[in-house]
Specification:
Blueprint lengths: L3 H4 L7 H10 L34 H4 L8 E7 L6 E10 L2 E11 L5 E2 L9 E2 L1 E10 L10 E3 L20 E4 L25 E4 L9 E3 L1 H10 L7 E6 H5 L1
Parallel strand pairs: 1-11, 4-5, 6-7, 9-10
Antiparallel strand pairs: 1-2, 2-3, 6-8, 6-11, 8-9
């Protein structure tokens, strides 16, 4: 693992390196933008809820949330074949999960899958750790190790609406090596299982497999997700998350 000081430095990359890194990441189609504002904190639970569980997540996935995790980014997809989602940040206080903030988001343009494959345009359902961050822009105050590099930039033959997709990214630890920059191309489970799946900036519609949010949402998450709290993402369409 690189030292934090080295990883914060701007990495000078060639055009070939920039292109390969961008193509390894998820993209998506064009479309009308959804709202970009965050939702203020509200009461965490009703009396009928169990405060010791992440809401709307079934036993299968609850058991996969590490016992030491105190931050959960829940991505609730609108439907198995939908590209629309809601992201909610939960923070654990004592034994209770408290709803901290939420935002509209997008996921894979074809929806969700429990068996993600390279190029299927669906986001993987599951529970994954969040270990590393980066992007084109300077570090906004991230707690996670942050790699700034021009190599994250989307190629300019993509639609202009996509050019800022990777200004900020948080790597989802699906088929990747934790402790490396988000654009590290290593795929421990093989290329056919896909990879390069991130939280990144929203362009207004579905992605190739990533989850996209507004710039203010990404900045908030970067400044809030704390490796000492062992953050994870719990992601999927609502039906699969409850299964």
């Amino acid at each position: 693992m690189r030292s934090r000081g080295v990883r914060h430095a701007l990495v000078a990359m060639t055009a070939v390196g920039t292109l390969s890194a961008a193509l390894a990441a998820c993209g998506g189609g064009t479309g009308a933008a959804r709202g970009s504002g965050g939702e203020a904190a509200r009461p965490a639970h009703t009396a009928a809820d169990d405060p010791n569980r992440v809401p709307d997540v079934g036993d299968r996935w609850q058991r996969r949330i590490p016992a030491d995790s105190r931050q959960v980014v829940a991505v609730y997809g609108d439907g198995r074949d939908s590209a629309d989602a809601t992201v909610v940040l939960y923070t654990k206080s004592g034994t209770a999960w408290e709803r901290t903030r939420s935002w509209p988001a997008h996921n894979g343009k074809k929806g969700w899958t429990t068996d993600h494959r390279e190029g299927d345009k669906r986001s993987p359902v599951g529970v994954f750790t969040l270990s590393d961050a980066g992007g084109v822009l300077p570090n906004p105050g991230a707690r996670l190790p942050y790699t700034r590099s021009a190599a994250f930039a989307a190629p300019h033959w993509w639609a202009a609406s996509h050019w800022h997709d990777f200004d900020y990214v948080i790597a989802i630890d699906y088929n990747r090596v934790k402790g490396t920059p988000p654009n590290d191309p290593t795929r421990p489970d093989g290329e056919e299982k896909g990879g390069g799946i991130w939280l990144h900036m929203d362009h207004g519609s579905g992605t190739s497999a990533c989850v996209s949010l507004s710039k203010p949402a990404m900045e908030y998450l970067l400044r809030t997700l704390d490796p000492d709290r062992h953050p994870v993402v719990v992601m999927g369409d609502r039906a699969d998350l409850l299964a």
